[in-house]
Amino acid sequence: MIGLIHPALRRDMLLRTGIRLTALAAATALALVGSSGTALAAEVDESAPISSRSQAGYSIGDSVSGFSTNRVAAEDCGVRVDLPHPSRTTNNQIHTRVESFCNGATLVNNTITGKSYRSRWYGWEHMKTKTNGPKTTWRIRVTVDVNCEYGTWHRWRTEGYGSGILNGQPVSASAYEENNDEVMCGANN
Fold it and tell me: How far apart, in whole angstroms, are the C-alpha atoms of residue 150 and residue 186?
């Protein structure tokens, strides 16, 4: 049928069809870019490679520059991370307690930060960060309380980062804890 149409009219129809296809392609590309103006890339694992699970002792060094002599600062001082678990007091939340401590000594500028992640197909998705400090005390705690959707199942990981000054020396440590199996988010599990 298109062969029976006058060549000038055929060229005009093809041009309009090409413009419509170009407009459709542009609209599709705009939808894929999203509202931020950047293309949607593959998701990335946001967790940090921390080797100490559950607890890590403070080592002497400059926590800002990352320098560490790998010398233990003091016995029974460091960062502890509890196992992430469904809250027993707040509906639809996963809780993890993280603490910076030094039994028998006081840490100046004692600061603790907890970062919680949930499992995804590509790795760990960052959900919430919470910090407490700096304070001059032997122990400081923070509970990372992440909202979750009722009935969803995920593994959870929390990383703890502690720092302070002990006997005039900067100290720092990091540890993590994670669930080996998925846990369900629910109403006061």
Answer: 5
Residues 186, 188, 189: CA angle, nearest 5 degrees: 65
Q: What is the pTM of this model?
A: 0.70
The 8-class DSSP code of residue 88 comes to S
Element (H, E) at 57: strand 55-57
The enclosing H or E element of 109 equals: strand 107-120
How far apart are alpha carbons 189 and 186 in whole angstroms?
6
> Residue 103 falls within a domain, yes or no?
yes
CATH number for the domain that contains residue 166: 2.60.40
Whole-number CA gyration radius for the chain: 27
Provide, for the chain, the percentages of residues in helix, strand and coil under a 3-state DSSP scheme, each rounded to the nearest 5: 15, 50, 35
Start-to-end CA distance of the chain, whole Å, equals: 69
State pLDDT tens for residues 97-155. Answer: 999 999 989 999 999 999 999 999 999 999 999 999 999 999 999 999 999 999 999 99
Q: What length is written for the chain?
A: 189
Distance (Å, whole) CA 173 – CA 98: 12
Range of the domain at 16: 2-33
